Amino acid sequence: MKNNRVITAFIFSIFTLSLLAQTKTGGVKPVRVTVTGKLMQTQSYCGGASPTPEIEAQYQKAFPYSGKVFYVRKGKINSTKAEVITSFTVDAKGEFSFQITPGTYSIIQAKQLKSLKSVDLKSKGNNVVDAKCMKEWWAKPYYLLEVKTENITIPDWSIHHPCFVSGDIPCISYKGPMPP
Fold first, then answer.
1. Is the pTM of this model over 0.85?
2. Domain membership flag for residue 179
3. What domain range is 26 assigned to?
4. If 97 and its partner were Cys, which of 36, 116, 119, 159 is the partner (CB 3.0–4.6 Å)?
5. Which CATH number do you get for residue 155?
6. 37 and 96 inside one domain
7. How many domains does the chain fold into?
8. Longest CA pairwise span in the chain (Å)
9. Same-domain pairing of 23 and 91
10. Are the CB atoms for 131 and 176 separated by under 8 Å?
């Protein structure tokens, strides 16, 4: 009987020390939530001749934006002071998934990782940059993510690519001649 008490006391001591160690070192793993979604893209018809109905229909269809990379920072606005927590890449089906702890996060694009430079705010050739729009776009996350304790499915996204503008920044437009 005495041996049982000693064993019980020993097990209780180990359990208590384990709890204290977890509390002091933060050893208890936080809840991780899975975030999933789908990203599609569309593009404009940039040819010269009027498109056939078949070509018009083809350009109206969204298709997966495979290979697109997004980054996740803490906070409601984009700031280079906030560290990047994780990143994710859209797969061939346009789908993505990542895990994160509860909190408020900004999902941003690669161009939003570093501060804008004056060259980013200047028009180049036939591509016109709206500087005010560019500054607002940079500070605003592509998607604001509020994570509680349950898995999240982000509503489907779609990015449109206008003619003769590379990248995904909506503040740049083409003002040049169209092909014949």
1. no
2. no
3. 1-30
4. 36
5. 2.60.40.10
6. yes
7. 2
8. 98
9. no
10. no
4 burial (CB, 10 Å; 0-12 / 13-18 / 19+) is exposed
Residues 142 and 61 in one domain: yes
Question: Which residue type occupies 6?
Answer: V
DSSP the chain: -HHHHHHHHHHHHHHHHHHHHHHHHT-SPPP-EEEEEEEEEEE----SSPPPHHHHHHHHS-EE-TT-EEEEEESSS--TTSPEEEEEE--TTSEEEEEE-SEEEEEE-GGGSS---GGGGS-BTTEEE-HHHHHHHHHS-SEEEEE-SS-EEPPPEEEEE-TT--SS-TTEEE-SPPP-
pLDDT in tens, 93-149: 999 999 999 999 999 999 999 999 999 999 999 999 999 999 999 999 999 999 999
